[in-house]
Design goal:
- The complex is a heterodimer of chains A (about 625) and B (about 475).
- Chain A contains 25 helices and 21 strands.
- By secondary structure, chain A is of the alpha/beta class.
- In chain A, strand 3 and strand 4 form a beta hairpin.
- The longest helix of chain A is centred in the last third of the chain and has 18 residues.
- Chain A starts with 7 loop residues before the first helix and ends with a strand.
- In chain B, the strands form 5 sheets. Chain B has a 4-stranded parallel sheet, sandwiched between helices. A 4-stranded mixed sheet of chain B has the order 13-12-14-15, with helices on one face.
- In chain B, helix 1 packs parallel to helix 4, helix 8 runs antiparallel to helix 11 and helix 11 packs antiparallel against helix 12.
- Classes of the chains: A alpha/beta (about 625), B alpha/beta (about 475).
Chain lengths: ~625, ~475
């Protein structure tokens, strides 16, 4: 790494030397080091490769790079071999030797480590051949494959910070805002507010001391795109923020990362330190006269701190209680100063827009933003596709892609051959959509129209074994737990809705309860102080609208069609199928299964807590649920 | 029968009142009158419908003169109602009113019985006792004693406040003495009252305010009763007015002096272990921390210094003339970061550490607690050696995180939030760890396990057992 760069020219020269030193034809083994792959011993795989490279005296001839998340979390640890671009999945430390000896040294494939097409059995070797990757448009996420997140040189070599240089050297702050406005970039945190409009308001706001903030709280359960961006390409966020600070005139910024993301925190700290050392942060950045310093704040485990006013309260050292937003954050935010707050993914889009121009950005996505940035949803969005699909992972697609394409073409369809039931978008603030919505093009407005929302991109797929009533209850229980308690409609209303849903799940409700639930939902929506409460009824309202038969089955027939609601199901062992293997008895946490070895077992209903562990464990389908 | 002092014979007039149906419905009054007639010392025995009526009272007066009675007994309702009436009648008849005795055969007898025979028997017994007693009565004189009408109420909690107001509103001059610097007592420190869940302050503070402004109340706060002499109606009380060093007439309560005072003396006595029990003996300036803990807390505080806003010099130059909300910005105590470091290094937030942090950062202890209890990442209880976190996010839920949690609960025999007896494991649930593709996810300390099922739980826990 060089010493401080004091001009755009020096940055450019530095990049050129890095490019010159880089040999694109040299073999590079990249191992995914994102949290997901780490949980599958990804770092052990990397270490194993490191060892083999050393043993085979290949240091200096073969590169090893530990990257951030590569998105295909279902099949991790993911290893890629460049320049061929081969993708090996579900690797283990033991595979390192074989991969190096065969693929690296002799150019031969290790067939068993490739993905296989489930229909044809054909091997899929590269991203172009793997449907999960092929059907994506990885404008933002693609860089994760190319760089080591702990190495600022990789980022610069790939063109990082050129957007910053362009903005500082060739553009006025107003022109930067104009570009972002024309691009139609809307907030990727969930609400989809046009970034350009936000920045313009903040620039106009009174006061010299402005703040710039990155919302990396990503509280939505099921969403982890932000985490992977920070772990994979932290500098893209930093660069975006520096450009933003230049545009609005801020000199101090904060990145609020939730405490449950320790790796992201660590990597952001390193990125900031490295940027500072190179003169990309601090005083007089690249000789432009603009100064910015960034600080990292960790969250405290409160979902509500993803809400902008609560987040700022938390940065100020106070409990994260939101306030009413009749005065916006862009006028009085952090410490009552004008503040721009944007999501991680929003910031990552900024360098792209500056470099390739807003017109290019508008070619991707839906709608028309010529007259107003609200007229469409432009660019790509990273979704975390999880739940009952075959290929879980992070998926980047242009706005307007249909649910069907994401779930079936990219996601590989429903796991274990089950039937699709619904997909939840937008986290606890979103809604649950059903089969009739599979051809819905996903963008901000379409999702809101059907009662859901984009949120931070969580997309949870459910099959016939998931109960919608239970799901709605689950979300309300979550929100009840996370509600800050400040306003009555949310604090009391969400609790009451949750209790109503529990009654329905217990088979103790009547149809009148559904009307009450709907009424209550409408009140909570209208009267809550912040969006946590205001969107809390979405799961309830969408499930009531799209899955009413399921509610009625619980109420009228006292049945849970998915077999989830404990009060309405019971487990039995079919003595014809039971082989007496004792697996169920050994796994039962309540000691409710009785039986001798090799003899048919029995479930003692009084002791059974309906947890379903035996049902999962039995290999002979002998446990029956009805 | 002789009188109690044996000086002369008693001549008792006995009257049993029917009280309309109230007594007569259950007690056979004529029968009781007949019975009493035979008792020693009884000069006459009557039953009458309404003794408290004018004719009834005149009857007593007439009988005293005509039959030279020297004692009167009336068996009727509660003395609370008519003792005065009959004493007056007795006096009007020429006898000392205290030679009259009243016995309650209504509330104590007729109204609590359902059997006439039992009721009548009891009435006889009560009457007999009264007859025996009245012989011992002495003549008493009503004396007038000069008393001081003012009232001293000791203690300015809600009871004292309310008593003072009641008395003052009735026209009495009241002195309200309170040993603490302010009235209000415990109620001022509570949030809600039982059982109505009313806001305590909303009830209390209007009364406090009234006490402060009432023309009949003299408020003596920060004062203590040192000695009480005298007797009922004529007390002489010595009160020590503790030195305030403030001229109470001039003080407007602007609190500027308190803000500038470098000595922080009083703590929050309502919190457990405070050592402050309202006696005014607060905690030392810096609470004692045991050395190991002190190192950790000091390190956390030094890592995240409270700074004069704005943070960096660039901002300071630009914005010195443009300050908003100076008090909020003035001292930026990065409280959450400090607490996070302590929580990580100690495993939880011990109370002494929180007090120490409050002192050093100048953030009131109640605000420190507000933050410490708001965020789930903090634990106020000691945690086990290993912290097991089971993700309860949506993706994990959909893939059966509930069953995994059941299995762990079953194996460790604890609920989420609890720690095992041997302090080895603490079980917590987390709302999303962000590794959703590997749902269900469990972490033990910083080690992640993905695709966990109930049957895998045993192996996951094994290395830590």
């Amino acid at each position: 790494m060089a010493t401080k760069l004091t001009s755009c020219g020096e940055l450019d020269a530095y990049r050129k030397t890095l490019c010159a030193k880089h040999d694109p034809n040299r073999t590079c083994i990249t191992v995914c080091g994102g949290t997901g792959c780490r949980a599958c011993r990804g770092l052990d795989v990397a270490e194993s490769f490191r060892q083999v490279i050393r043993d085979q005296a290949l240091e200096g001839k073969v590169d090893l790079r530990v990257t951030g998340c590569l998105g295909f979390c279902e099949k991790g640890p993911v290893v890629t071999i460049r320049p061929k671009g081969l993708i090996y999945v579900k690797t283990t430390p033991q595979d390192a030797k074989e991969v190096v000896e065969k693929t690296v040294l002799r150019g031969q494939d290790v067939e068993r480590l490739f993905l296989k097409d489930p229909q044809t059995g054909k091997r899929q070797r590269t991203r172009e051949e793997i449907p999960f990757y092929k059907n994506q448009m990885p404008l933002i996420f693609g860089a994760n494959f190319e760089l080591d997140p702990q190495n600022i040189d990789d980022y610069i070599r790939l063109g990082g910070y050129t957007a910053l240089a362009k903005a500082l050297a060739a553009m006025k702050p107003e022109e930067v805002i104009e570009a972002v406005s024309r691009s139609g970039l809307r907030g990727r945190g969930g609400a989809g507010f046009p970034a350009g409009v936000k920045w313009a308001s903040c620039r106009k706001a009174e006061g010299n001391g402005k703040y710039i903030v990155c919302n990396a709280d990503e509280g939505d359960p099921g969403a982890y795109a932000n985490r992977s961006l920070m772990e994979g390409n932290p500098h893209s966020v930093v660069e975006g923020m520096i450009i933003g600070s230049f545009a609005i005139g801020a000199h101090e910024g904060f990145i609020y990362v939730r405490t449950e993301y320790p790796l992201a925190v660590e990597l952001m700290y390193k990125a900031i330190a490295d940027a500072r050392a190179l003169g990309l942060l601090g005083r007089n950045i690249l000789g432009s006269g603009h100064s910015l310093d960034l600080e990292i704040n960790r969250g405290g485990g409160a979902f509500v701190c993803g809400e902008s006013t609560a987040l700022m309260a938390s940065i100020e050292g106070r409990p994260g209680e939101p306030r009413a937003k009749h005065v916006h954050m862009v006028e009085r935010g952090l410490w009552d100063r004008p503040t721009v707050l944007n999501n991680v993914e929003t910031w990552s889009n900024v360098p792209l827009i500056i470099n390739r121009g807003p017109e290019w950005f508008t070619t991707i996505g839906t709608g028309n933003v010529k007259d107003s940035p609200w007229g469409g949803s432009k660019g790509t969005k990273i979704f975390s596709l999880v739940g009952k699909v075959n290929n879980t992972g992070l998926v980047e697609v242009p706005m307007g892609t249909t649910l069907r394409k994401i779930i079936y073409d990219i996601g590989g369809g429903i796991k274990d051959g089950k039937k699709f039931k619904g997909v939840q978008t937008g986290g606890p603030s979103g809604g649950i959509l059903g089969e009739r919505h599979l051809d819905l093009p996903i963008d901000y407005d379409q999702l809101v129209e059907v009662g859901s929302m984009m949120g931070s991109g969580g997309m949870i797929v459910m099959d016939e074994d998931n109960c919608m009533v239970d799901f709605a209850r689950f979300f309300l229980a979550f929100l009840e737990d996370e509600s800050c308690g400040k306003c009555t409609p949310c604090r009391e209303g969400v609790t009451q809705m949750r209790q109503l849903l529990e009654q329905i799940g217990a088979g103790k409700a009547t149809l009148a309860h559904l009307d009450l639930l709907k009424d209550l939902a409408e009140v909570v929506q209208e009267a809550s102080l912040c969006q946590l409460g205001a969107t809390a009824p979405n799961p309830v309202l969408t499930t009531l609208n799209y899955f009413r038969e399921e509610y009625e089955a619980h109420i009228r027939d006292g049945k849970c069609p998915a077999g989830v609601c404990k009060a309405l199901v019971s487990y039995h062992i079919d003595p014809e199928k039971c082989t007496g293997c004792t697996l169920c008895a050994r796994n039962c946490p309540g000691g409710a299964v009785q039986g001798e070895k090799k003899q048919p077992h029995r479930i003692i209903l009084e002791k059974c807590s309906k947890c379903g562990i035996c049902y999962d464990a039995c290999k002979f389908d002998a446990v029956v649920r009805n | 029968m002789k009188t109690g002092n044996g000086s002369h014979e008693v001549r008792i007039g006995f009257y049993i009142c029917h009280c309309g149906h109230n007594i007569a419905a259950m007690v056979d009054c004529p029968e009781v009158a007949r019975y009493v007639e035979g008792l020693p010392g009884v000069a006459l025995s009557r039953d009458y419908k309404y003794m408290c009526s004018d004719p009834g009272q005149e009857l007593i007066q007439k009988d005293i003169r005509e039959f030279e009675l020297n004692r009167v007994v009336v068996a009727s309702c509660s003395p609370l109602l008519h003792e005065h009436t009959f004493r007056s009648a007795t006096q009007a008849g020429g006898l000392n009113p205290f030679f009259f005795h009243m016995v309650n055969i209504r509330e104590h007898d007729a109204w609590v019985h359902t059997d006439r025979q039992e009721a009548t028997a009891k009435a006889k017994a009560l009457a007999r006792a009264a007859i025996a007693r009245v012989a011992h009565h002495s003549a008493l004189e009503v004396k007038k004693v000069p008393i001081h009408p003012d009232v001293l109420v000791v203690g300015g909690g809600i009871a004292g406040i309310h008593s003072a107001l009641t008395l003052a509103n009735a026209g009495k001059k009241v002195y309200l003495v309170e040993r603490e610097p302010s009235i209000g007592g415990h109620m001022a420190r509570f949030d809600k009252t039982f059982p109505t869940l009313d806001c305590a302050a909303c009830i209390l503070t209007p009364k406090m305010s009234q006490v402060g402004t009432h023309p009949n109340i003299t408020l003596l706060t920060y004062s203590q009763v040192e000695g009480v002499a005298g007797y009922v109606g004529n007390y002489k009380v010595k009160i020590r007015r503790k030195a305030r060093f403030i001229d109470e007439d001039k003080c407007t309560g602007c609190q500027q002096c308190a803000e500038r005072c470098p000595v922080q003396y009083k703590s929050y006595p309502c919190l457990p272990g405070a050592g402050g029990n309202g006696t005014g003996h607060g905690l030392p300036l810096e609470p004692e921390l045991e050395p190991g803990l002190k190192t950790i807390v000091d390190r956390a505080l030094d890592m995240h210094q409270p700074v004069q806003a704005p943070l960096n010099s660039v901002m300071q130059e630009l914005t010195s003339a443009d300050r908003r909300s100076p008090s909020r910005e003035a001292t930026r105590a990065p409280l959450i970061s400090v607490l996070q470091d302590i929580n990580r290094d100690v495993g939880y937030l011990p109370e002494p550490a929180l007090r120490y942090v409050s002192r050093r950062t100048q953030v009131p202890l109640v605000s420190v607690y507000h933050v410490a209890t708001f965020y789930k990442a903090f634990s106020l209880q000691p945690r086990g050696q290993h912290v097991i976190r089971v993700c309860q996010g949506t993706a994990c839920h959909v893939r059966g995180a509930g069953r995994v949690l059941e299995a762990i609960k079953g194996q460790l025999q604890i609920e989420p939030g609890q720690t095992t007896q041997d302090r080895k494991f603490t079980l917590e649930t987390v709302n999303c760890l962000g590794t959703c593709a590997l749902a269900p996810v469990v972490t033990i300390d910083s080690n992640y396990s993905g695709n966990v099922t109930a049957s895998k739980v045993k192996q996951i826990l094994k290395p830590y057992a």
